[in-house]
Amino acid sequence: MIPxxxxxxxxxxxxTAQVQRAFDNGWLTNRGELVLELEQKLADxxxxxxxxxxxxxxxxxxxxxxxxxxxxxxxxxxxxxxxVATTAAIVWENCTPVFVDIHPEYLTIDETKIEAAITDKxxxxxxxxxxxxxxxxxxxxxxxxxxxxxxxxxxxxxxGVTYKGKSIFEYGDVSTCSFHATKLxxxxxxxxxxxxxxxxxxxxxxxxxxxxDGPLAFHGLGINGKMSELNAAMGLxxxxxxxxxxxxxxxxxxxxDTQLNFRILQxxxxxxxxNWNNSYYPIISTSxxxxxxxxxxxxxxxxxxxxxxxxxxxxLPYVHTQQMPVSAQIASxxxxxxxxxxxxxxxxxxxxSLIND
Length: 357
Ligand SMILES: *Cc1c(COP(=O)(O)O)cnc(C)c1O
Fold this sequence. Notes:
Blueprint: H1 12-25, H2 33-45, E1 52-56, H3 61-70, E2 75-78, H4 84-92, E3 96-99, E4 122-128, H5 137-147, E5 150-154, E6 162-163, E7 166-167, E8 174-178, E9 191-195, H6 198-207, E10 212-213, E11 217-218, H7 229-238, H8 242-259, E12 266-267, E13 274-275, E14 282-284, H9 288-300, H10 325-333, E15 334-336, H11 345-356
Parallel strand pairs: 2-3, 2-4, 4-5, 5-8
Antiparallel strand pairs: 1-9, 6-7, 6-13, 8-9, 10-11, 12-14, 14-15
Helix pairs in contact: 1-7, 2-7, 3-4, 8-11
């Protein structure tokens, strides 16, 4: 069986050596030594300049905290083409998602349609750099400044991506990442938020720890978004392999590119100025029927692609219906092919020949 993804697992001795540190310290959570060390190592690896990083328990809670602080129960302009967490976080925080359709090649929010969706209730733009492909950041910034909106980027797929020479996490008022087991860099479960503004970072920080201001006082309302030492142990064991992980994926993506017949298939167009992380390998077919033929054929050969991201989020049962023709078309005809460290050339060749047939 070839799955769409496989978690990278470091040698178990290297993982247990990190866990041993937590045992030796007798300290399992509440920003212990391992979390602080991982935070520092990630800041170095990502070459963060202005942004500060805060490690968290997953990639959804940082979205929720950012929306709680910046969304203020208003309307959030967002993309219909992302993982469900993006929209769910908006609704969970009692804000209203207002969808704006996507660009047919970049698959990110179509910035030319954002201004028409702004009302006096709009508080934020929450856009996803989907598959690690940056949104049109400059244009979104311009619109946000003009209309006094905050920008939150769901950068769950973006570990290691740089845009115009700096980490993608340097952009937006808040940017978030997921370190879930299926993501390129992972801690089992985990995530992070990134923020440049010291005052906002402080609010986000206390919000992720019950609002604590020392043991007895509280700044304000908070929730538990802390990463545990056990998850940080996994991150510390995976991080030394990150360049190898990204290099192997890059090789696999290149191999797919040379083997697949693109006469009828479309592939992701990565925005210029991006150093991409090769996080996913989506192919877009001409129709849903065509896609299902490909999917069924692969499944029959025990290859399990995934329909990332279906359905288009404007079709979720808990949001108001809006017409999003591009996203609807893409969501119904896109398929992510297997991509992980250890995927063999000959497996890629087999997958491609099944699809080309
Ligand atoms: C994975 C993912 C999330 C959620 O991250 P978790 O760590 O699983 O909570 C959010 N947004 C997108 C786009 C994702 O792919």
